[in-house]
Amino acid sequence: MDRVKNRDFVIMLLMACIFLGVIWLMAKSEISGNIPGYVTHIGHFGEEQFIYSLTNDYIIEQEFISPKDFDFATINFSDHENQISGKTFISVLDKTSSEIIYYKEVENSEIHYGESVCISIENGGKKKTPYILRLQFEGMGEEGLGIFGFKTDEYDMPAIINGKTGDYSVGVGTHTYTNRYKNLAAAVFLMIFFIIIISLLLVSQTRLSEEYLFLGLIIPVGVTFLLFLSVNVVHDGGTHLAKAYHYSNVLLGWDEKDTSSYVYLKTDEAKAFDEIYVIYRRENEVAQHFWDTLDEFDNRAADNQLVMSHEYRGTSASSFFEYFPGVIGLTLGRIFGGSARFNILFAKICFFVFYAAMAFYAIKISPYLKSVLAFTVLLPMGIYQATGITYDSVVMAVCIVIVALFFRARAAILSKRNCLILLILAAILGCVKGGFYLLFLLPFMCISARNYGSSKRKWLISLGSLAVGTLAMLFTSFNAYWSMLQKMMGISSNEITKSIVNMAPVVVEAVEKIPETNVTAYGISYLFTDLFGFIELFIRTLVNKADFYLGGLLGYRMAWTDKTINWVILILFILLLAASAVRIKGEKAPVIGMKEKAACLFFFGVEVIAFHLLMLIETPMNATVINGVQGRYFIVWIPIILYLMYNERRLCEYSEVRKLYYYFSMAECLYIYCFFKIFLGIS
Questions:
Q1: Has residue 654 got a pLDDT over 80?
Q2: Secondary structure class of 19 (helix, strand, coil)
Q3: Which of 154, 177, 200 represents a domain boundary (last residue)?
Q4: What span, in angstroms and rounded, lies between the C-alpha atoms of 68 and 8?
Q5: In sequence order, what are the beta bridge partners of 136?
Q6: If pLDDT is split at 50, 70 and 90, which confidence band does 37 have?
Q7: If 0-12 CB within 10 Å is exposed, 13-18 middle and 19+ buried, where does residue 547 land?
């Protein structure tokens, strides 16, 4: 027996060496030469060519301010892939003194599309200092250079074109030479090494229970994701952070003058908030939030003066319970005077700790399919959301414990303690995402009355949990649903956006400027007026967006980028999930009847339809599919679906199941490697 264990350990050790060697070779060939040698402070984002052909009489001035000291600046032109004659004169002035600190003449023939023109200021530029970029041109022919920029909004300074204020800003970039990306790369690959070695050692400890195997894997993976992610990159990150700040204000007793629209923050928090959601929106700058957090780690909050943020918060369809881990983190950080970025990081850590702790408890109490629960929680999309500020971590954490209680109820009679936990979780579930996840409680009705002790107890527990969750939903979201019901029947395209509950006035104002298109939204009325049309639309959506839903479930694309993870890696996660749905020898297996399988599938189908019905109110009738539904909404159903695949006759040794954790760690490391490439802007 010992000989077999030693042999398995040697084989896994050899696999670890080969795997790490392959990762190292891939990194050397794909990454080492592409690691940026500078950090970008202001980047070229949302770019378009706003002047196609610059003539000799053009004089362009662009003010810019870098939030950090910088070594050089960049601007982008286009030569239209032609030989452009003449010269471009580039000057940089200190706005305060009007002193010219940089001057350069560039032959237009040396300027090419896709290549930035570098402005290397002697001794570098200073942070928070206003500079003026001045561009003049000479000797242009019939066709001149094009210049790139972006449409201005309230945060931007428009260009001055021939003395007149324009609608665009020149795309000025500021950059600082650094080894930070190389250091981060080293840290990431050290974490990959650590994940593989730790998983190998944990799997070799045969007496270690599965919940500790899970804990040993999720901690290093979660820490690695925290290295990558700014708060802005999760789905709807700005709104979620604004809500978390709002509930923190409530806990602290800080008065918000406007109780329905914008969040109020301390001066340093508002500044950091604007920087995070204005500056850190570009793919090559996601790391900047991490750098700034490190730079300002020891900073103390300047004052407690509350000012209105630019970020709208909608609170009518949300509750404190959606964000309570992060709210507690923010509040504690603010009480002890931490910097804004430190408090945000601490809030993210609190979300992750809650997510991991709840999953640990779920795996511990589940009588079977422990690895299914563990792998569902460890999916990249789950970790991605759990290391950000969003209610998704709370939803998933609560639902995974509910699944464990469901498995426990199938194996034995639920104790009074477990029933109480179920009721508490049902109440939280009713407070999250408008109560849409209450349908997740329906599978408890599929369990035989024998497993509850009596028929009366069955309905008391199953319907009681639903009742508690429904009451919580009505308490927190009644006004939202009432407002939606008043507006969801036959509305115009402009009214689609206006129907969102308690919409920010700035957004409503923007919508009012949109010309009338006479395009109506489907609305819920479409279900009753054209049932077959809805069925056709629904099926078409599922067919056309199947890969989108599956990819969103696994984490093929993160919120801030259009670049995707290789599907080969994602298929590995699918195979490992399927492999985990096996019966371990000696494990008491549940007998799952066809009625129970059909009922669970029906409840899952109802959940899918419900989310698509919700999105009908914002889908215009000229759309061929229903938009707005995300694959991540259904992660919590994975254990239930795999439970239906559970076969009491398909047996395996416990040691083989433990090895799956080792293979899963390899899949996680491959994902982290690909994720890091995207993070660096490497395709």
A1: no
A2: helix
A3: 177
A4: 53
A5: 59, 89
A6: confident
A7: exposed
Q: How far apart are CA 459 and CA 419, in angstroms?
A: 12
Question: For residue 313, what pLDDT is reported?
Answer: 62
Residues 228 and 335 occupy one common structural domain: yes
Distance of CA 245 to the CA centre of its chain: 18
pLDDT for the residue 494: 43
C-alpha span between 305 and 428 (Å, rounded) = 33
CA neighbor of 106 nearest in space, from 118, 121, 88:
88
Per-residue buried b or exposed e for 26-60, using 16+ beta carbons within 10 Å of the residue's own CB = ebeeebeeebbebbbbbbbeeeebbbebbeeebeb
**CA distance to 42, 152, 284, 430, 561, per residue, from 155 (Å):** 13, 8, 20, 38, 22
Pairing of strands 651-652, 583-584: parallel
Integer Cα distance of 258 and 256 in angstroms:
5
Q: Residue 198: which pLDDT band, with cuts at 50, 70 and 90?
A: very high
Closest Cα to residue 497, out of 489, 505, 507?
507
What is the domain extent for residue 28?
Answer: 2-33
Q: Give the number of domains in the chain.
A: 3
Is residue 10 one of the residues assigned to a domain? yes
Q: What are phi and psi of 278, to 5 degrees?
A: -110, -45
What DSSP assignment string belongs to 100-159?
EEEEEEEEGGG--TT-PEEE--TT-BPTT--EEEEEEEES--SS--EEEEEE--TTS---
Whether residue 199 is found in the same domain as residue 273: yes
What's the pLDDT tens digit per position in 199-210? 998 888 877 889
Residue 215 has pLDDT above 90, yes or no: yes
Per-residue pLDDT band for 401 (boundaries 50, 70, 90) equals very high
pLDDT (tens digit per residue) in 218-240 = 999 999 888 776 655 677 777 78
Same domain, 83 and 126: yes
CB burial string 333-353: b at 16+ within 10 A, e below: bbeeebbbbbbbbbbbbbbbb
Considering the domain architecture, whether residues 266 and 171 belong to the same structural domain is answered as no
* 504 is a domain residue: no
The CATH code of the domain that includes 79 is 2.60.120
- Residue 89 and residue 160 in one domain: yes
Is 216 in the same domain as 331?
yes
Residue 387 placed within a domain: no
Secondary structure (3-state) at 94 = strand
The CA dihedral of 263, 152, 623, 519, to the nearest 10 degrees, is 90
User: Residue with structure tokens 């509850």?
Assistant: 452
Q: Are 256 and 327 in contact (CB under 8 A)?
A: no
Structure tokens at 393: 């971590």
Q: Which residue has the tokens 């639902």?
A: 399
Q: Longest C-alpha distance within the chain, in Å?
A: 93
The predicted pLDDT at position 495 comes to 45
Indicate whether 128 belongs to any domain.
Answer: yes
Which residues lie below 8 Å from residue 40, measured CB to CB, with a gap of 6+?
173, 174, 175, 282, 284, 285, 288
pLDDT digits (tens, 9 = 90+) for 72-125: 999 999 888 888 889 999 999 999 999 999 999 999 989 888 888 999 988 889
Final residue belonging to a domain, choices 142, 177, 212: 177
**DSSP calls for 20-55:** HHHHHHHHHHHTGGGS-SEEEEE---S-EEEES---
Verify that 302 and 249 share a domain, yes or no: yes
Is 55 found in the same domain as 152? yes
The answer to whether 521 and 495 have CB atoms below 8 angstroms apart is yes
At 649, the pLDDT band (50, 70, 90 cuts) reads: low
Instruction: Find where tokens 């901690």 sit.
Output: 219
Q: How many CA atoms lie within 13 A of 483 on its CB side?
A: 14
Q: Cβ(425)–Cβ(460) under 8 Å?
A: no
Does residue 331 carry a pLDDT above 50? yes
